[in-house]
Amino acid sequence: MLRHPEFSVVLFFLCLCIFGWPFISIPGASSLKSMFYYLFISWGIIIVLLFLIGIKQGKSDNHDGNLI
């Protein structure tokens, strides 16, 4: 699933939705602790997914095992 180029597009639009104004305003300004957890966890998940996409694409591009 991570090797498909469509997944990158879906991840991009998911990031737009997650970090967009409507979702950011759901916890409200009164709960800064929950806002911090929401942003930190969603940011971490996106970073892990991007890392996994990079690993999968690197393995498919590099068949002989050389890094260069």
Provide structural commentary.
With 68 residues, this protein is mainly alpha-helical. The relative contact order is 0.13. It has helices spanning 5-18, 21-24, 32-61. The chain has one domain.
* Total DSSP E strands: 0
The whole-number mean of residue pLDDT values reads 77
The radius of gyration over CA amounts to 16 Å
Largest sheet features: none
Shape: elongated
Helix and strand composition category: mainly alpha
Helix content class: over 70%
The fraction of residues in strands falls at under 5%
Uncertain runs are none
Order of helices and strands: HHH
How many domains comprise the coordinates? Answer: 1
N-to-C terminal Cα separation, in Å?
26 Å
* Total of DSSP H or I helical runs spanning 4+ residues: 3
Keywords: Membrane, Transmembrane, Transmembrane helix
Transmembrane segments: 7-24, 36-55
